[in-house]
Amino acid sequence: MKHLLPILTMLLLSAAALHAQEPDRPNILWIVSEDNTTLLGCYGDKFATTPNLDQLATQGVLYKNAFATAPVCAPSRCTLITGMYPPSLGTQHMRSTYPVPDFVTFFPKYLRDAGYYTTNNAKKDYNTTDQPDAWNESSTKATYRNRKPGQPFFAVFNLNVSHESSIHTSVPDAELKHAPEKVPLPPYHPDTPEMRHDWAQYYDKVEEMDRQAGALLKELEEQGLAENTIVFYYADNGGILGRSKRFMYESGLHIPLIIRVPDRYRALAGGAPGTVTDRIVTFLDFAPTLLSITGLNIPAYMQGKAFLGNKKEPERTYAYGFRGRMDERTDLSRSVRDKKFRYIRNYLPQKIYGQPLEYLWKAPSIPSWEAAYKAGRLNEVQRRFWEEKPAEELFDVEKDPHNIHNLATEPKYRAELLRLRKANHDYLLETRDAGFIPEPLLSDIAGSVPVYDYAKSGRYNYARVIETAEMASLRDKTKFPEIRRRLEDKDPMVRYWAVIGTIVLKKYAAPARQSLETLLDDSDISVRIAAAESLLNLGETTRPVSVLSAALKSPNLMARVYALDVLENIGPKATPAFENARTLLRENSKEADYDVRAAKKLLQSAGK
């Protein structure tokens, strides 16, 4: 036994040495504010009152080019939690909750399995089926303080005080800290009392958000954890006033991001304290970055690039963004951003920017903007929100931070337009973007198989579908002969986009009338609804409205939403569909359902 002691001692010493060489794991604190772009003092906004985040910026690295993938919360949060691009998963539409493949794991679960105590306080809104086992705690009381002694933590605190809902109820002017008359209005907003008030109240809410962030940072200090904790502060999307949240401009996609790394983990940092980096990062990169800085493996399915830690990758060239259905209104846009330009591709350009959304219209500033438009009191820049979109938009974000000077048709910028157009097209193909599947069909697919798996199976002819969508949305009359041929394609998705092409071209598509009438009996309801809209544009009423009215009885929720979207735009012609709309309301009392919202708006608009 005696001769074994040296061996045992050597083994124990070796184990201790190995343990001592293991790097200690940092705690991670995420402070997430809702619905605010870079309206902070540290980002140069002189009207903002944000002393705590301004101080955090002096202690960490401020990211000049950080972007949400979507300009609204749920699809953005899907990106954050999965590390995947929602259009590749079929989860790009607002609160669609379509399932993802089994292999897609909410990334905090990897941290939890590695010994981290994971907490979420408290918003989830991941736009897909929840995975509760990602968290040790997820509630309004969740806190890292409940972990075991010495256990590393990953803690998320969501600050909702700056959320869009915070301006739905107006505070009296006398109670505001930021004076409405001093608010710097962006050039696309009209100078109405309601607009000034909403902006001032919003700045007050951002100030309160900053105070709450400061309290979390103070608590970290008081717990003696600041020197062991990497702090991320960011917003979940831009916002909140009209043309920011939900829209593809800088105001909707450009987010603040500050990361403070303690001295002991300086090797993991993206720069020295108090510096600014122009590295492009997106929400797609957050999950792999968290795994990188905690020393964990990054799953191959994740589509982002780690921008910190031991697995840091070369900088990305572009930030990609997307817009799908927003609540009860359908739309489809994609965006590409480099360090100088933002490119936006609108695939449903016939739809105006300012489609009426029940939730958006709760802010007093929006009805005031609409009223000013109807009264003819807006300038050209302010009117655009209420008019159809161009197929392509291109902005020099350095010279034009408000994105009001569209350079897409200027010869001087032709090379940039073509470069970014190609970057967008290539990414659509690379990700097999499922946003081009009309949602009534998409929802049916998701009922039997995750959309990601469907797209990978070969059943989604994404290249031809996307090619048709690009052709259809350009307003290019020379493309009409091919669009007309594709009305008879065997693929319903191709037929759908060919019909969209006739809607975009309006009266010019009249020679396709007979084919469109045939498509009123198409096997796919999305095609039938689109054909009805096109024929309404060409002056027909009876059969198209009958098709739309029948769609209101469909068991497919999104088919009902699609049909209501068309009916609302045709005024009194929709009268034969009113009884089915009333029946829908009687049989469905869920106020949050998007078909209910759209049916209510249809009947209210008609005075019914």
Automatic annotation (TrEMBL):
Keyword Transcription: no
Coiled coil: none
Keyword Lipoprotein: no
Alphabetical UniProt keywords: Hydrolase, Signal
CDD domains on file: SGSH
Record-linked SUPFAM superfamilies: Alkaline phosphatase-like (SSF53649), ARM repeat (SSF48371)
Residue ranges occupied by any Sulfatase N-terminal domain in the UniProt entry: 26-295
Entries under Pfam families matching the protein: Sulfatase
Signal sequence region: 1-20
Family per similarity comment: Belongs to the sulfatase family.
Record-given protein name: Sulfatase-like hydrolase/transferase
Species for this entry: Dyadobacter sandarakinus
